[in-house]
Write a structure and sequence with these properties.
115 residues; two-stranded antiparallel ribbon; mainly alpha; globular; single chain
Length: 115
């Protein structure tokens, strides 16, 4: 089995990474915002983001003082887009996903990140 395929499924094998992907489908977020929603240590969230980035699911972009993470709009491998588009089918009905989306939409990074 190809190394890329294994990397894709390893990236998707953690519930927090799935939650991050669903949050990023709502809007681009910085580490502070993701940390706030997941209630995990910043180092843990950074590690999850690194795995998702290395697998090609997300990218980061600088926006002034912010480093935003967002869903990769043009992944090198078309299977990534296919996997991302099927997330709703598999996990959209999870209560944590709905709760995360609500928190993301209500969050204010200027308040969260100044703590």
């Amino acid at each position: 089995m190809g190394e890329a395929k294994i990397k894709f499924f390893k990236a998707l094998s953690d519930s927090n990474r799935l939650r991050i992907l669903k949050m990023l489908q709502t809007k681009p977020l910085c580490v502070c915002e993701i940390t706030n929603v997941l209630e995990l240590a910043t180092s843990t969230v950074s590690q999850h983001l690194k795995i998702l980035k290395e697998a090609g699911f997300i990218i980061e972009g600088k926006d002034g003082k912010w480093v935003n993470y967002l869903i990769n709009p043009r992944p090198n491998d078309p299977r990534i887009s296919s996997l991302l588009s099927s997330l709703d089918y598999w996990i959209a009905d999870e209560s944590a996903i709905a709760s995360d989306k609500k928190k993301v939409l209500e969050s204010d990074r200027n308040i969260i990140c100044s703590k």
